[in-house]
Amino acid sequence: QLQLVESGGGLVQPGGSLRLSCAASGFTLDYYAIGWFRQAPGKEREGVSCISSSDGSTYYADSVKGRFTISRDNAKNTVYLQMNSLKPEDTAVYYCNATRCDYVAVDLAFGSWGQGTQVTVSS
Fold first, then answer.
1. DSSP assignment, residue 123?
2. For residue 1, how many C-alpha atoms fall within 13 Å in the half-sphere facing its CB?
3. Comparing C-alpha atoms, which of 1, 14, 9 is closest to residue 89?
4. Could you give the CA distance from residue 120 to residue 43 in angstroms, rounded to a whole number?
5. DSSP letter string over 25-83?
6. Which burial class, exposed, middle or buried, applies to 75 when counting CB atoms under 10 A from its CB (0-12, 13-18, 19+)?
């Protein structure tokens, strides 16, 4: 079973930064493309970004392009999401999951969903 654990969320002011981590348990991340997804209150879960397993190609939702950066450290079995210039509309629970990474979409994810990590952007 592919189990991923998200961490790094918190409360940040608009314009601030956070780095989320997605750690794998019981399997090696190297072989999987990993995506970040988020769900805001009252909204459907949406894709944010993904990174391929083969060549490290990355994809971003238009709403986060230029502000978020996804990366992976296979030695640490972890994928990161660096979030800069945060906006109130980025407030959501953020999840990571194994996914196809042809583009960013929730329906491409195929692992189990974890608890997520809450990101709140507010002054």
1. -
2. 6
3. 14
4. 15
5. ESS-GGGS-EEEEEE-TTS--EEEEEE-SSS--EEE-TTTTTTEEEEEEGGGTEEEEEE
6. exposed
CA distance 43 to 98: 22
H-type alpha helices, 16-102 = none
pLDDT 10s digits, 71-123: 999 899 999 999 999 999 999 999 999 999 999 999 999 988 999 999 999 99
Q: Which residue in 47, 50, 10, 52 sits closest to 30, CA to CA?
A: 52
Give the pairing type, strands 3-7 and 58-60. Answer: unpaired
* Sign of CA pseudo-dihedral 100, 32, 57, 20: positive
Q: Measuring CA to CA, which residue among 55, 57, 16, 17 is closest to residue 35? A: 57
